[in-house]
Amino acid sequence: MKKTEYIKLIDTTRCTACRGCQVACKQWNEMPASRTRNFGSYQNPPDLQWNTWTLIRFQEYADKNGDFKWLFRKDGCMHCTEAACIKVCPSGALYHTDYGTVALNRSACIGCKACVSACPFDIPRYNQATDKIYKCDLCYTRLHEGQKPACVLSCPTGAITIGEKKAMIEAAYNRVDKLDGKATVYGDKFVGGTHVMYILSENPAAYDKLPSNPKVPASVILWKNLFKPFTLIGMGAVAGMAALHYLIKGPHEVHEKKEGGEHDV
Asked: Is the pLDDT of residue 208 over 60?
């Protein structure tokens, strides 16, 4: 039985950039810290990392009247319905959950980084030490136990909320109406709809690293429809031949030492 689809709604008009969500995410997922350098911003670290799945972006912005303001945005996986990362993943490590979110089976990840190139939001991060990909899974284990994601639970202003899909989309548009149209809803009109949505105080184009019209790359569609099936067939054939060889020949045996050759030390 399919479970209820959830949407996490992020209201940037209520965000104070306290970074409680950033810390809570790191603590819950037991991610280690990394040494960083000041690059002239309160934002830290400078970008998402394999061990930082949630990041508050700090941005200085001047509106059309020349008035200065801060733009704060919680960045992380958008959990797309038409997820490019899932379409290109050759091992099935990335998949949709019953909640509509995108989860990652890290043990199945082969470190090919195809998802890194395919994601229109530039979210997955690669760790060379483990040869694996990392990203937010919207606290799948917490959802499974009826608990809110760590970032939602930690937000002191109510800027981050979560609920059933239909109710959250309705709540987003109601909020925009209360703001007299001085905000926009972002996330429900592209890539099949995202399971993380924003209420933005400015036009999407004003925000750093937020595409105005994200799309699944044409190369991803070509890979999914034409090349991926042949890749999977090839992988299956290799596995089948290996199994057949084992049944016929048995396990590899250590070659006997040549006469007069090397000696044990």
From this structure: yes
Going from the C-alpha of 92 to that of each of 8, 23, 109, 205, 228, the distances in angstroms are 24, 30, 8, 33, 11
Which of 138, 136, 175 lies closest to 12, judged by CA? Answer: 175
What is the model's pTM? 0.83
3-state DSSP percent of the chain in helix, strand and coil, to 5: 30, 20, 50
Q: Which of 114, 35, 108, 48 is nearest to 78 (CA)?
A: 48
Closest CA to 11 of 163, 165, 186: 186
Q: Is 249 exposed, middle or buried (0-12, 13-18, 19+ CB in 10 A)?
A: exposed
Query: pLDDT tens digits for 127-141?
Result: 999 999 999 999 999
Spatial separation of the C-alpha atoms in residues 225 and 68, rounded to whole Å? 47
